[in-house]
Design goal:
2 copies of one chain form a homodimer.
Chain A lengths: L1 E5 L1 H14 L4 H16 L10 H10 L9 E5 L3 E5 L5 H19 L1 E9 L5 H9 L1 H7 L16 H8 L5 E6 L20 E6 L5 E6 L6 H10 L8 E2 L5 E2 L2 H5 L3 E2 L10 H19 L19 E8 L8 H13 L15 H13 L2 E4 H13 L11 E3 L1
Parallel strand pairs in A: 3-4
Antiparallel strand pairs in A: 1-12, 1-13, 2-3, 4-11, 5-6, 5-11, 6-7, 8-9, 8-10
């Protein structure tokens, strides 16, 4: 199968020009484009360019708002409730996470929830915004009052380290359209409700958990269906709520099951985690929740998603966070694996491998069908097409 | 199998007198007894009276401290780092959760982590302390500055509701002795690292998630082993890291696997969640972590566990939390179940059923072997035995 290589900059620019063409403000379009490019760069194609037409349609139809900015409705030193004003998910998400980080710098933690939001791309993007504070912290070093991080001798290295004060940890959660059947049930009443947690290690290393609380993403079931393959037991159930290895049954009237699969193998825990995400999102924020959320790809009514963004400043806790974090990951990665060909990983490692591969190739490889589909979309709205590099990648 | 019924008050008193006999301060003994009784009352016998001898031995040997109180090491409006001073886990846990609740009342959220702690019983106990604030809030109503909760007409019911202001949500996490093998690995480097989240609904109803991040508890594997039964695939692995249905292989050199089971069915998500708990506990608190934690039942060195306690005040977010929370649970419970004999539950429902059963019987039913074992322990330390009711329960 051949794939077209497209530079990150071109994907970024393409998404921006498409979104602006249908009336999105340039800085909102930029926010969306960044999240989608990041999704693809990390290898999560289901949350990247592939979904751009959904955002284009939402703006064109007016289901998603073009104008305005998110508004803080309730505010305290460590918490905020934000009205996302039905703007694009990444606009709401960036606003809330920036606010959470600001609060974490001042109060140790920031816990910000939003209602009136929309699909926001990969949850990890927001959690990782906290990691990126490394750079901001260099400029805004006066935000940190404690000098205790600079206590190892004043060498060039430690001086540099001192300017790399531990950035906050980040967390992000969103509710989503119902696709998951609770344990013992047979209707989809929960979304894939992702959990993302990012925590910084040493030397730019990090732990980045970004996972749906369903056993798998719907896209994986669809892929097996297209290939005519069966799915592993524990991914989904049929219309009677019975686990099924037939992807067609899962896709037609059945649903995904929570992590853990059946009740006997702990599926009720995944169900509980999906509910936990709903508590942090729809319930805390006063947004839509559970099966009140519009179903996937229905775009005739406002989504009003609830989302939750948390930043934690390790400086308010025990000294040496980054060193311990790196050691924790080293313990796992350094372990002898069950199969020598498959090393033990830490959350975020598969994505790092994918990003490295893209960077070495000089772009992100897209299936030709995706490029053609996007260019049809671009033509319709009068935008110049995606320009692949002159390289074709074989896989 | 016959069981002895023992009143909650007698179990509480028995644990207190045993702990005090070996030198525990009376109010510390009371804290421990409360958590153990609650564990049994909720049906989690693996975290109740059954474990008392471990605490007795820890105090007798001096591995766990008798004297002192937990100390706040770092403090901000919304966060704190606590040194548990190697006191009993429930002493540290109650101290931290009380502090988190106090902070949540003032700053919207309290995020408190402890190092120097010990086994603290069921994680749910601490998360639920936030729920119990219902009662405290009635007395300390001046803590709430916002009158917006009392806006529905002044009837007797709404007046009562107004005094039942939404209590904080609670969360609790602890790291534990290594028993879980990371995905692709073959050594136990993580504990069963539980997550607990409690959130209040209407009329005393609540969502109480209290789950290990392993597929099952070790006790369940032991139980199958004693019965000579095989275990479901996805509970544990053998010494080569391969999933096994033979409980002996899991118990002898193998280990539990994270929720989700194999890599194909999403076990890496459970592994990521176990790591997340470690980030919140050992890493943030500067306590022991991962396979540096002493192994289970090794009591010749200090545990120095890390724990994390969070309280969130729904009053700082969207109005109507309790109503939405109850509706969210009703959607799930009201769904037609796959099997009419097994209704869809919300987290906390199985425990509520167990508590109701105990309350109707007038006590907690214990296996005669447990009672005998505890009474041998009591005799050794010169304490009067557990007194069963005059009822014997058949099961």
């Amino acid at each position: 199968m051949s794939r077209c290589l497209i530079t990150k900059a071109e994907v970024q620019s393409f998404v921006e020009r498409c979104m602006v063409a249908v009336g999105t403000k340039p800085h909102h379009a930029r926010s969306l484009a960044e999240v989608l490019v990041e999704g693809d760069h990390r290898g999560h194609y289901s949350h990247g360019l592939n979904r751009m037409d959904m955002y284009v349609k939402d703006i064109e139809s007016g289901i998603c708002a073009k104008d305005g900015e998110p508004v803080v409705e309730k505010d305290s030193a460590a918490t905020a409730l934000v009205d996302g004003k039905n703007l694009l998910g990444p606009v709401v998400g960036n606003f809330c996470m920036d606010l959470a980080i600001k609060k974490a710098k001042e109060a140790g933690i920031g816990w910000v929830v939003a209602r009136g939001s929309n699909h926001y791309g990969i949850a990890g993007h927001y959690a990782m915004l906290a990691l990126k504070e490394n750079m901001i912290v260099r400029v805004l070093i006066f935000y940190y009052s404690s000098p205790e991080m600079c206590n190892d001798g004043g060498s060039a290295v430690s001086h540099h380290m001192c300017h790399n004060l531990p950035p906050p940890q980040g967390m992000s959660f969103t509710n989503t359209s119902p696709l998951v059947v609770p344990t013992r049930g047979k209707q989809c009443t929960l979304g894939t409700n992702p959990i993302s947690v990012a925590a910084p290690g040493k030397d730019g290393d990090s732990f980045v958990l970004d996972m749906a609380t369903s056993a798998v993403a719907l896209g994986k079931v669809e892929l097996h269906d297209r290939r005519g393959d069966s799915i592993p037991e524990g991914w989904g159930c049929d219309t009677h709520g019975k686990l099924s290895t037939d992807p067609k049954k899962v896709l037609n009237g059945g649903g995904l099951v929570p992590i853990g699969g059946s009740e006997a193998t702990g599926g009720y825990k995944g169900y509980g985690l999906g509910m936990m995400v709903e508590v942090f999102c729809g319930i805390l924020a006063g947004a839509q929740y559970s099966n009140n959320i519009r179903t996937w790809k229905v775009t005739d009514r406002v989504a009003n998603l609830g989302q939750c963004f948390v930043a934690i400043n390790p400086d308010n806790f025990a000294h040496g966070f980054n060193e311990r974090m790196s050691d924790l990951m080293s313990i796992q990665r350094g372990m002898e694996p069950a199969d020598p060909d498959f090393p033990v990983l830490a959350a975020g490692d598969p994505e790092r491998t994918n990003m490295k591969k893209c960077d070495e190739m000089g772009g992100i490889p897209y299936h030709i069908n995706v490029v053609n589909y996007m260019n049809d979309c671009a033509k319709r709205i009068g935008v110049s097409p995606l320009l692949p590099c002159d390289k074709v990648v074989s896989e």
